[in-house]
């Protein structure tokens, strides 16, 4: 039933799974897309008006984020606030292996579709919930989005400079970190089901998924007994030098010497080998003490070259470094095209489009090629007919009654 493949022909690891995806925005939706790209039949269930990403204002391009994180799914529009909508949902639950939702805590209970009821209807179900701060605890009642999670977890406090004040990160890191952790928890629960024969409810909080990424900043606090400063492009724990982004002739270059050997190699690349044994710079600790001077020396060298020229010289000695690429450069970089990180697609509405592939590379079962994300309710009949044996007339009646969409 998956729009990317059929069960009979697919060797994909998740090809026997039926996933009901109530995910909205990025978090739950990305988790569901990864499952679809590895063979699961993923049914995206949305209210008749569509989920939040469909409601973004502006040009047709405003909906592009929805197309990026919903490839390979089928769409069912269903009014879960109606009695018939809930009945249909329960019928689908009895056929499903996994349910994904990232609503606010207790939303499903308020709809009369809480985890206890669903697991009673289908004891093999893996009920996967993603929340902002968890179901219990003081913070659980707070609305949570990527921005607020960054604020509440120390991410913003450690991003930017002392002059800039707290800043959010460029990417929606909280959403996507949580989506990947949610997938991990689902796969563990499915393995457990293989042992016990029973499903279970699981939960991953965005905040919990983000906090480990602050390990360098946490280590600074534990070691120094005070909050780490906002260090801009320097190491967040102020534990390495050089560790910075340096202006080049045509942009910027990031550079990081992890070991003393890297520093020695860098000094040879810069044609200043004597700096490798200079007592100011001959150890990680000494370079940190003289961080400003390290940055001055490295910055002067990088400034002579274009990004690519400096990078090529550094790669001769494998000094950890990289040109700072723009989003457009990333999307058109052959390496990422070859890896399938971004995939060209002829989209039925948007035309030529780049979408996201799976970052999970299994040697014997490559991920499926992304297929266009569905339009709202595009597969209403197919889903209800194939899973629940509904007739075309029954589906038309549900549409007219407002169960699948606005009343006619």
Number of helices: 17
> In total, how many domains does the architecture comprise?
2
Termini separation comes to: 28 Å
CATH architecture of the largest domain: 3-Layer(aba) Sandwich
Give the tally of β-strands: 11
Q: Which percent bin holds the helix content?
A: 25-40%
Series of secondary-structure elements, N-terminal to C-terminal: EHEHEHEHHEHHEHHEEHHHHEHHEEHH
Which fold name fills CATH's third level, the topology of the largest domain? Answer: Rossmann fold
Strand order of the largest sheet: 3-2-1-4-5-6
Task: Summarize model confidence as the mean pLDDT.
Answer: 93
Nutshell version of this structure?
This protein has 408 residues and is an alpha/beta fold. Helix content is 37%, strand content 14%. The chain folds into 2 domains: 18-212 and 333-400, Rossmann fold, CATH 3.40.50; 243-325, formyl-coa transferase, domain 3 (2-Layer Sandwich), CATH 3.30.1540.10.
Features:
single chain, 408 residues, alpha/beta, formyl-coa transferase, domain 3, 2 domains, six-stranded parallel β-sheet, three-stranded antiparallel β-sheet, 11 strands, disordered N terminus
Protein architecture, described:
The protein is of the alpha/beta class. It has two domains: 18-212 and 333-400, Rossmann fold; 243-325, formyl-coa transferase, domain 3 (2-Layer Sandwich), CATH 3.30.1540.10. The protein has helices spanning 27-37, 64-68, 83-93, 107-110, 115-121, 146-152, 173-196, 206-210, 215-224, 260-269, 284-289, 291-302, 307-316, 327-332, 334-339, 380-388, 392-400, and strands spanning 18-21, 41-46, 74-77, 98-101, 126-131, 200-205, 243-248, 251-256, 321-323, 342-347, 351-356. The strands form three sheets. Strands 3-2-1-4-5-6 form a six-stranded parallel β-sheet, with helices on both faces. A three-stranded antiparallel β-sheet has the order 7-8-9, with helices on one face. A two-stranded antiparallel sheet has the order 10-11. Strand 1 (18-21), helix 1 (27-37) and strand 2 (41-46) form a beta-alpha-beta unit. Helix 1 (27-37) crosses helix 7. The longest helix has 24 residues, at 173-196. The radius of gyration is 25 Å and the shape is elongated. It starts with 17 loop residues before the first strand and ends in an 8-residue tail after the last helix. 37% of the residues are buried.
